[in-house]
Give the backbone structure.
Amino acid sequence: MYSVFKDFSTFKRNKMELKDKLLSSYVAFENRVDTNSDVHEIRSQALENFEELGFPTRKLEAWKYTSLNTVLKQDYSLFPNTERAIELVDVKQYFIHEIDSYKVVFIDGKYSSFLSQTTHEHYDVCLMSSALSNAKYKPVIDKYFNKIAKQDNLTSLNTAFAVEGAYIHIPKNTEVKKPIQIINFTTGSEAATMVQPRNLVVVGENAHVQIIERHQSLTSNAVLTNVVTEIFADKAANIDYYKIQDDEITASLVDNSYIEQQSNSVVSVHTFSFGGNITRNNLNFYQKGEHIDSILKGITIIEGKQHVDHHTLVHHIEPNCESHQDYKGIYDERSTGVFNGKVIVEKEAQKTNAYQQNNNVLVSDKATINAKPQLEIFADDVKCSHGCTIGQLDEDALFYMQQRGIPQKEGRALLMFAFANTVLESVRIPEVKQRITKLIANKLNVNIGFDL
Amino acid sequence: MLKIENLNAEIDGKAILKGLNLEVNPGEVHAIMGPNGAGKSTMANVIAGKEEYEVTAGTIELNGEDISELAPEERAHNGVFLSFQYPVEIPGVSVTNFIKTAINESRKAQGLEEMPAKDMLKKIREKSELLEIDRKFLGRSLNEGFSGGEKKRNEIFQMAMLEPKLAILDETDSGLDIDALRIVANGVNKLKSKDNAVIVITHYQRLLDYIVPDFVHVLHDGKIVKTGDASLALELEAKGYDWIKQELV
Ligand SMILES: Nc1ncnc2c1ncn2[C@@H]1O[C@H](COP(=O)(O)OP(=O)(O)O)[C@@H](O)[C@H]1O
Ligand SMILES: [Mg+2]
């Protein structure tokens, strides 16, 4: 094993392409995992996929507006092997610490039992690594692992190296009493770190759960996170999921989330994108029953050269379902945004009600937004609406506020809050809402407590 | 209190105010009348500091201090209030939260602490009762979907909350029915004292029956061309503006 790591450092000196580096490091990876398992079959297959597909380039339609080039040039350490201790006081701010919650915490891709609070009591809130290796979980893993994740470039890459992440399994008729926070810290112990968490969330019939996910680097060393989360909502399940993306400007994130819903289930995902260098959210919903509701909401507030790309997909397969998308974006300086919202309504999916709204404010004339709704509707009795606006802040409203004594900066902030409020409104954990409000205020550099 | 001398202002290179003079002392009420397009709203906006308008000559002094370089919010903090002819709609911000923010930002600028929530509520209750504004109304988005009359009443509610030194009411009476007019005028009168002043821009005598002016000015083609007492307003209502225009030539 040591010799493998030595080889690995030679690669470093020669600065291989990241793809080659990943492929050549696979032997080292295989030394650490059980290669005699069904899961490893899946991994190996995924590696082949990735080998064939490689990293996405702008030649691909889905990546037309997002280039990973500069991000991929970094010389990432793939298996950071120093276990740096983290004091709770240093990271407390990244938790929603005002509430009692379960916590599944990883540091440089490794589970931190010290910062975590897991359970097996009425449900499993624990680790992917133990779920993958423990026979007790095999039926669930067999049934759900990598079953809805796309076999595409980056998801395959994640699957190939999947060992750790959060494993959440809620049996039927169970309400999880407190929210679950999944937090991935990177310590920056290496000059550049790549991590690939793999989460699996299986929620049984009529069960309820709330989840908060965050990726946070603790230094300004480069980080690339390529995370995959598979979420299964059985009949009448209710999942309320929040993604807080407020990372360092040197951290990039590709978030691949796949959600399969059965009849009468409600799954809502809120994505708050404020930080980071390049952030790509691939959020995919597959409706496999009737009377399903899928809710996709997001607030993006970025500046500098930040880039946030939301690629959403809602696949309406059965009749009588709904989907609600509401994405708000505020772009300052030279930042760029992408919103690509795809809705497919199959021929059988009559009485679908699909709603999509994407509103953007360009604060600076150097900022850009590429917005593209993609509706593919094969049923005839459906209600599908989509709207996209790109505007500036209302100067007359700003003057009106200033006239009443609200300084320009605060006035702008108030207008932006008001603009984003339709998304904040539906946040069901008050402490999360408060935190987001505070993050927005920080981001806008104002100190006003709006309770809109 | 307010001293405007030889004010010239333009927008997109088009001269609108052309040598306007006006002096307002504490305790006084001034009415400004004049035909459409004369520059009344422009004058109000320039005093309030709207940046679109370029001041090319002249001075605006408030309490002996030149305010023409101050930002709109700084002028507001110095006691200038403008009741807009066309109040702006701000979706997503409730009347209550807006006025709270306005008051607390003004207090911050004066180095004061935020107003305690209890005092704020009490004040809001008091002033909304004065203007006969329904509680439910205060929870609605600012001016969004308000009728013309509701918007104007809301402007005066904000004025009552902010207690300005110099209030400029730009056609606050238009869009008000007679009952609302009485309520609004009554609100303005309640706030009047020997220390503050009001400039009322209007086309109609009926508001001036309630808010009795000490001076009436006629603004025409960017300057004040005639000044008189309250009786001038009656004369203008009876005869229109043509006779003044004729006097000028
Ligand atoms: N924002 C603006 N852009 C262009 N022209 C303007 C603007 N504001 C006012 N004006 C012009 O200035 C003149 C005076 O307008 P205004 O001050 O609104 O008059 P009043 O309030 O007396 O009716 C009018 O000719 C009007 O068209
Ligand atoms: Mg006017």
Observations:
- Confidence is low (pLDDT under 50) at residues 1-14 of chain A.
- The CA atoms of residues 356 and 386 of chain A lie 4 Å apart.
- Chain A has two domains: 8-288, 395-452.
- The longest strand of chain A covers residues 222-233.
